[in-house]
Structure formats: C-alpha cells, structure tokens
Write a structure and sequence with these properties.
Length: about 80
Amino acid sequence: MAVTVKFFASVREAVGTGTVTLDLPAGVATVGQLREHLSARGEAWHAALASPSLRMACQQVMCDAATPVVDGMEVAFFPPVTGG
C-alpha cells in the first residue's frame, strides 16, 4: 500500500522534508501505526512526531490515530499552530 505523507511547519523542519511517498509494510493500517512507523526512522523523526499535540489529517480532513490508512491516501502531520 502506497501513501503520500506531508509534513508542515516545525515537523517539516525537524524531519528535513515536506513530503515522502512510502510503500507501507504489513501491519501499518492506521494513522497511529503510520506515525509509529515514521518515528522509527531516527531520533529527529521520533522527536518531531512524539508530541501529544501533533495534528493529523487524511485527505485534508482532520483525523485521529485510529483512522484507517488506504492505498493512495494523503496523510499530513503538523503542529497545532502553523504559520505561512
């Protein structure tokens, strides 16, 4: 299953990219599991995605960790307040 993941504001700065396209391994079926999968990429990724106030969206609609991820989906991670 392939997904596009976008990062905004301080999350983008911390991970060093605004967008990644991933083929997800078996067992990554929710936004929360995707977040955990990305956090395992290294300390900067873990620190950027660990905040309990981190916001998430699927297909440009706010979501929570239990939201299912489907093939071709766009998932976004961003802090609670973003600037231009």
